[in-house]
């Protein structure tokens, strides 16, 4: 793609084109697969960025909204958030009540979820206690993270196998709803993460 | 206002482009149904096929819905059948919000390592700022900022692709 096409897409999205130029550009897009895909991708990312920010803001901690995971520190940015967006202070306090400090993850190379799948538990009525996932060839270690309904981490564990049993007391008692993911890491530090599995059910006593 | 014939012609062209976009994001056997769904929604809402951002949004939502349905279907199957691998690389539309947030955060951090301005712009977009607001703060024209942001999003696209996500 030429630089000029890049600029035209940017100008189109900025609303900077004249009506005639805009109509001409739209005709070109409707006739050109590559140009259509480039415009679609740009709009796709334009929509995804605030969505990613909103999710973190509403489900993890409003204070961490735009902070990369690698530099996250408990309590950091609280003052910044309240100064920058005082109207959101009440929301931030509410979210902070659910916040549990987590150690910052080590730098790692991240890969997509194309080959690692969280299998069990998943769906409604699950017996929660045994966790199972697909094998990721080359993985040296797996880490699972289990969260409750509001997104707090309730249990985190590592395993060299593709299953793990939560020890007694590690998970909430009784019926509850949550999500979990599994990550694999190979010897070179390459990380894959599964898509998030949602479940609801009752914590079962450890079977082994 | 375009005539009915012109509108039909634009819809036909749009359908052809939708197929090209969809083929890169969902399995081939799902493309035709998915494109028909998107075009049906545009027609039912009496949408303007010249309004490309809106039409592409319809397609994006349709692709996202397709992945959600696959997810629900996989949950209804036995665990050994549930591991339906998504297309490789994983389309952005296939990511759930939690995964999207984590991957985007990491990728933006990576972009920021080599280009602090891009990192700043992308983080502000994640926080909900508009390019016009960022342009105001930087003291540049909105169109200039749009071009800068376009290039920054291009860098982000490259990082996402390296990490197995297709935008």
Explain the overall architecture.
The complex is a heterodimer of chains A (208) and B (167). Chain A is 32% helix and 27% strand. By secondary structure, chain A is α+β, with helices and mostly antiparallel strands. In chain A, strands 1, 3, 5, 6, 8, 9 and 10 form a seven-stranded mixed beta sheet that branches. In chain A, strands 2-4-7 form a three-stranded antiparallel beta sheet, with no helix packed on it. Mean pLDDT of chain A is 73; it is low at 58-83 and 100-113. Chain B is globular. In chain B, helix 2 packs across helix 3 (52-76) and helix 5 packs antiparallel against helix 6 (116-126). The model of chain B has no long low-confidence stretch (mean pLDDT 87). Chain B contains eight helices and two strands. In chain B, strands 1-2 form a two-stranded parallel sheet. The chains are: A alpha+beta (208), B mainly alpha (167).
Short description:
With 208 residues, chain A is α+β, with helices and mostly antiparallel strands. Chain A has five helices and ten strands, in the order αααααββββββββββ. In chain A, the strands form two sheets. In chain A, strands 1, 3, 5, 6, 8, 9 and 10 form a seven-stranded mixed sheet that branches.
- Report the count of strand segments of chain A: 10
> How much of the sequence of chain B is in beta strands?
under 5%
Task: State mean pLDDT of chain B (0 to 100 scale).
Answer: 87
| Helix-and-strand structural type of chain A | alpha+beta
Uncertain stretches of 5 or more adjacent residues of chain A: 58-83, 100-113
Element order, helices and strands of chain B?
A: HHHHEHHHHE
Spatial order of strands in the largest sheet of chain B? 1-2
Task: Give me the Rg of chain A, rounded.
Answer: 22 Å
- Biggest β-sheet of chain A, characterized? 7 strands, mixed
Report the count of strand segments of chain B: 2
Determine the number of helices of chain A (DSSP H or I, runs of at least 4 residues). 5
Most extensive protein-chain contact, per-chain counts? A-B, 64 and 68 residues
Helix content of chain A: 25-40%
Q: What is the general shape of chain B?
A: globular
Ends distance of chain B:
33 Å
- Supply the helix-strand structural class of chain B: mainly alpha
* Percent range for β-strand residues of chain A: 25-35%
Largest sheet of chain B: 2 strands, parallel
């Amino acid at each position: 793609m030429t630089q000029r096409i890049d600029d035209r897409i940017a100008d189109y999205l900025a609303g900077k084109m004249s009506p005639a130029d805009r109509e001409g550009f739209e005709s070109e897009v409707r006739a050109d697969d590559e140009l259509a895909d480039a415009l679609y991708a740009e709009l796709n990312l334009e929509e995804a960025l605030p969505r990613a920010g909103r999710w973190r803001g509403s489900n993890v901690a409003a204070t961490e909204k735009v902070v990369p995971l690698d530099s996250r520190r408990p309590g950091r940015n609280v003052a910044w958030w309240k100064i920058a967006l005082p109207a959101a202070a009440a929301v931030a306090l509410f979210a902070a009540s659910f916040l549990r400090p987590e150690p910052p993850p080590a730098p790692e190379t991240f890969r997509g979820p194309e080959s690692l799948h969280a299998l069990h538990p998943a769906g409604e009525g699950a017996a929660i206690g045994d966790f199972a996932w697909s094998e990721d060839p080359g993985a040296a270690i797996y880490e699972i993270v289990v969260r409750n309904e509001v997104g707090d981490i309730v249990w985190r564990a590592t395993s060299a196998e593709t299953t793990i049993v939560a020890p007694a007391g590690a998970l909430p008692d009784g019926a509850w709803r949550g999500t979990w993911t599994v990550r694999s890491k190979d010897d070179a530090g390459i990380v894959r993460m599964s898509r998030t599995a949602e479940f609801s059910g009752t914590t079962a006593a450890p079977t082994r | 206002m375009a005539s009915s014939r012109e509108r039909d012609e634009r819809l036909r062209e749009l359908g052809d482009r939708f197929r090209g976009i969809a083929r890169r994001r969902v399995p081939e056997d799902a493309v035709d149904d998915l494109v028909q769904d998107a075009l049906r929604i545009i027609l039912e809402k009496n949408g303007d096929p010249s309004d490309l951002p809106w039409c592409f949004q319809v397609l994006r939502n349709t692709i996202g819905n397709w992945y959600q349905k696959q997810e629900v279907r996989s949950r209804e199957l036995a665990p050994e059948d549930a591991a339906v691998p998504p297309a490789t690389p994983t389309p952005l539309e296939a990511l759930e919000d939690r995964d999207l947030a984590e991957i985007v955060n990491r990728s933006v951090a990576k972009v920021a390592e080599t280009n602090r301005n891009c990192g700043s712009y992308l983080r502000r977009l994640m926080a909900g700022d508009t390019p016009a607001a960022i342009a105001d703060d930087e003291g540049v024209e909105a169109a200039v900022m749009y071009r800068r942001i376009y290039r920054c999003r291009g860098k982000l696209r490259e990082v996402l692709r390296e990490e197995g996500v297709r935008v």
